[in-house]
Write a structure and sequence with these properties.
The protein is mainly α. The chain contains 15 helices and 6 strands. The strands form 3 sheets. The chain has a two-stranded antiparallel sheet with strand order 1-6. A hairpin with a 2-residue loop joins strand 2 and strand 3. The longest helix has 31 residues. The radius of gyration is 26 Å and the shape is globular. The termini are far apart. GO terms for molecular function: transmembrane transporter activity. It is a multi-pass membrane protein. Belongs to the major facilitator superfamily. Proton-dependent oligopeptide transporter (POT/PTR) (TC 2.A.17) family. One of its GO terms (cellular component) is membrane.
Length: 540
Amino acid sequence: MAVVMRLDNADAANRANNWAGTTYVFSIAGALISDSYWGRYKACTIFQIIFLAGLVELSIASHLFLQRSCDFRHGEAGRQAQHCRPPTKAESLVFYISIYQIALGNGAYQPAATTFGADQFDETDAAGERKSKSAFFGYFFVANNLGGVLAVTALAYMEDKGEWVLAFWISTAAALAGVVLFALGTLRYRHFLPNGNAIVSVCQVIVAATKNRHVKTPQQAEDLYEDGDHGDGDEHDEEDAKIKKNKMLLHTPDFRCLDKAAVVVATTPTGHRRRPWSLCTVTQVEELKCILRLAPIWVCSILYSTAYSQMSSVFIEQAQAMDASLWGLTIPAAGMGVFEILGVTAFVFIYSFCIARIVSKVASREPTELERMGVGLVISTLAMITAGVVEQQRLKHATTTTTTRQAAASLSSLTILWQIPQYVLIGASEVFMYVTMTEFFNDQLPEGLRSLGSAMSVASMSAGNFASSLLVTVVMAITCKGGQAAAGCWIPQDLNQGHVDRFFFVIAALNAMDLLAYVVFARRYRPVPLIKPAGADETS
């Protein structure tokens, strides 16, 4: 993006973070639509088609517009920004429309696909399919990352040479193959109907609790309203009760103010269907409580995502200022992401077959999801410290070279391979954080909100990208008061004149403080309430 769109380092990092953040924001919309209206299979199908259409538009736009903007015959795309003329407004508009359509298709598809895959396992089979479901999330992330190997190696190399159009068409072909493979399993999938609008249900609880704020909450949970517990409903309510009876949640004492939404006030007319904006069920209230319990854990994951997002922005800019030659070949800066993929793949199996088994023998149990996420925060902090140390070494080996067009380029004689540890550590942290968080949120939310649980883990990436963009902006505003050429600027156009190492250390310090807050919230977390069996009372 920085090359073709003629952006400086900080602006390019912010644009990349904002695009990635928007991608993950769409995951919330995709989760709500799949759970509430379309169902997960239909959502997966439609969003895949939107994603594919966006890639087609990007490929055509690159052929018609962006390819005319650049001439890479005199050098590599990643090194020779002067080979690209500034794009026109029309070219920029077409480019951004296509990439944000890709963001919609990819972002909205992810939570629906994750939950749809988990739906294929029978949770009642504790010894077999339930255990396989736990392993599924790890293997799903491995598959996602292995799919990116081609993107960060061959395609990144092609784009570095200016072959943007061909690279985009290859991506389009891969997306088309994915749609076809997904469609082939249609007859063998387990399909589930949507469960109603979760957002409306949450809003009903908030509104009803607000209306009843002056009403005294009963001491006994049995006095709160639940479908099927009262005989004042009509035929429609009785049918709903039969469907929902096996999915009721037990009452919990947390967030007592929300219980007011389920209080049957004396003025409630009998013999009439309840007003959903004035009286809610205990299950509706408990669903909102489940979301609120997860909120502190989710907030703590945002700073982790800030560290994770550096891999697609500042890490690449750091690599572009290093020696990328190896055995006569030039390693694309974005190609270093393959080591993150290898880190994810390796640590999924290392955890499953080594760490989990060793811990279970020593402690007689496997690490909990909350413990594993804490480990992820520790590893991400180490990754940022490592990146800062690598940057210090890069600055010690800073050089100035001359390009084929006699333009000065500030690089470093330090080999790009020094970045391998920070990428591997990021990959390892992803296994402990994102994989576990997806599994944890999926397990800790009721069936009708599970896509939302998957979306929450993806939305953490979104918030992290926006937080990273904000952090870059703040850092630039504080350290570059005299412009990017000012002394002391942390992320200038010429990284040899900057202090990106300090930027990495700031993120490491924020991650360390985030870890302390996470430990407090994790120790106070109360698990999801049990499902109330049909015909059972609260005490049973």
